Each structure stands twice: as structure tokens, then as C-alpha cells.
């Protein structure tokens, strides 16, 4: 039987690139999106044809327990879980409503809890598995005007380390990929001038590409079993 992976938030950006990387490695895929079901279904078909893999699209909010249960109701086995779905929020903390705070925390953090609690029994049954959480450099150092986002990614890092300890005896490795600035729609809120200023701060002199993030994600999923509980940074030397 082929290897199976679930990638959340695969309709665009980093998740979309990770889906192609894993399809090229021979994984069958479960891909999720929040709204873009038509385009994700088309993409799943495209990957299926290109790499000969089974790819299934699913629409749902990964921060919602019922949606995650519905997703897992059709998954019988899973070798790799990539928790990529995420949103940012830019603004002063005092201007943020409790609803906006909850949405950031539920999408970025609770989603990891909800998918992990469904995936772990499948991985235990198979004798092992891999979990990769897509985090951010802001999870380690924090960013002004991104306090909720930073808090959510800091918690993702702690969850990664704690869960790695909990699951290492069961041969399930848990790691995180902490990205710097990657060129995706998530950063379209910045003006060209702001992007230019950002690039000048980054020693590599440019943004990372979704393909680079996906290539590293693929390598982490293939790392030796002894690597677990690690937060691996991809940021062009920035932080
Ligand atoms: P993006 O906005 O291009 O894509 C986000 C994806 O998540 C989309 O497919 C969207 O449908 C999905 N999504 C959003 N909310 C969801 C929900 N509630 N349930 C299910 N899916 C949902 O963003 P991206 O830049 O590709 O980001 C992917 C991940 O990488 C995120 O976790 C993000 O925090 C992280 N990251 C991105 C950057 C960056 O600079 N782009 C930097 C550090 C970390």
C-alpha cells in the first residue's frame, strides 16, 4: 500500500507546494482548504494525473472539531500529517476583538490539536508516523503588530516539542518548520515599499519561495527517525 499524507490548507501558497512535493515522492494525498474547493479539486486531479497518485480534496475549517472529524471519517491510514493551514492578523493588540483573537488561535493552534488527536491513533496502529507543523520565526522571537499570530506559533512550537516527547516511544516523529518571509498571498497585505524594506533586512536579499519551503518540508518528513522535537528555521539568515 502507498504512503498517505494529509496536508491542511493546500489550496495555495506553501501548502499547495508541499502537496506537489509529496505527490512527487509518491504519497497519496488528502488535501484541505477553507473556501476554494473548486480549485483544490482541480489541483488534486492535476497532481493525480501528473504523479499517478490518489489525491482527494476536502473543504472545511481545521479549527472546527466537527469539520476535522468529518475529514477523518474517510481516512483509514496516515503516514504523514502536515499542519499547514494558517492565517495572519496584523494590527495593534488593543484593537483586536476576542473573535479575531479566537480565529487566529483556532486556525493556527487548535487545528493542530484537532488533526493530531485524529491522526495519532492511525499512526499508532501502523507502528509509526510523521507530524510536521508549519510554524513561523515569529513563534520564537515575536513580532510587533502580530502578537496573536506570534503567540499562536510560539504555542505550535511548544506543542511540537511536547508531543515529540510523548510520541517518540511510539515511533512518531513531530517536528516544525519555522518559515521567515515566504512569497505567498499571506504577504499581499504589504505595500511594495514595505516588501522592499523587508527584503533589505533579510541577509539573503529576497523572500523564500513556496517551493523552497516545500522541499525542506519533504526533507524533514524523510529525516532519520532519531530527529524529533525540532523547530527548523528557513529564513534566508534573517532572524
Ligand atoms: P496562504 O494564505 O497563502 O495559505 C493559507 C492556506 O490555509 C490556504 O490554503 C487557506 O485555505 C488555508 N486556511 C486558512 N484558514 C483555514 C482554516 N480555518 N481551515 C482550513 N484551512 C485554512 O498562506 P501561506 O503563506 O501559504 O501559509 C501557510 C502556512 O505557513 C501558515 O501556517 C503560515 O502561518 C505559515 N507561514 C507563512 C509565512 C509566509 O511568509 N508566507 C511565514 C511563516 C509561516
UniProtKB/TrEMBL annotation:
The keyword RNA-binding does not apply. GO terms for molecular function: oxidoreductase activity. The keyword tRNA-binding does not apply. CDD domains: SDR_c. Transmembrane segments: none annotated. PROSITE patterns: ADH_SHORT. GO terms for biological process: monocarboxylic acid metabolic process; steroid metabolic process. It comes from the Bacteria. Keywords: Lipid metabolism, Oxidoreductase, Steroid metabolism. Belongs to the short-chain dehydrogenases/reductases (SDR) family. This is SDR family NAD(P)-dependent oxidoreductase.
